Amino acid sequence: MRVRDLGMGFDSDEIVLFKFCVGSCQRSRGNYDLALRTLLANGSLPKRTARKVSAHPCCRPTGYEPVSFMDATTTWRTIKSLSAADCECVG
């Protein structure tokens, strides 16, 4: 991924490794998730509220790595907590 494409405000064409989390968390569903899914499906929650809630846990970073690169002015830069180091189902 080009540093410039990350949207962090740095002017650099340097390529960095950006790791992210993906995947389904179906096995991590708890009673909360099951009840919320049913309430959403049967229309028990107001539509305005239903649009804002997530009925399932999601795969998110639980640990991060810094990313270092050289910008267009040949200055070394480091962005802390940018790339995912560990992922888990949370929510």
Automatic annotation (TrEMBL):
<keyword id="KW-0964">Secreted</keyword>
<feature type="domain" description="TGF-beta family profile">
    <location>
        <begin position="1"/>
        <end position="90"/>
    </location>
</feature>
<dbReference type="GO" id="GO:0005576">
    <property type="term" value="C:extracellular region"/>
</dbReference>
<protein>
    <submittedName>
        <fullName>Artemin</fullName>
    </submittedName>
</protein>
<dbReference type="GO" id="GO:0048731">
    <property type="term" value="P:system development"/>
</dbReference>
<keyword id="KW-1015">Disulfide bond</keyword>
<dbReference type="GO" id="GO:0030971">
    <property type="term" value="F:receptor tyrosine kinase binding"/>
</dbReference>
<keyword id="KW-0732">Signal</keyword>
<dbReference type="InterPro" id="IPR001839">
    <property type="entry name" value="TGF-b_C"/>
</dbReference>
<keyword id="KW-0339">Growth factor</keyword>
<dbReference type="GO" id="GO:0008083">
    <property type="term" value="F:growth factor activity"/>
</dbReference>
<dbReference type="InterPro" id="IPR029034">
    <property type="entry name" value="Cystine-knot_cytokine"/>
</dbReference>
<comment type="similarity">
    <text>Belongs to the TGF-beta family. GDNF subfamily.</text>
</comment>
<dbReference type="InterPro" id="IPR043401">
    <property type="entry name" value="GDNF_fam"/>
</dbReference>
<dbReference type="Pfam" id="PF00019">
    <property type="entry name" value="TGF_beta"/>
</dbReference>
<dbReference type="GO" id="GO:0030116">
    <property type="term" value="F:glial cell-derived neurotrophic factor receptor binding"/>
</dbReference>
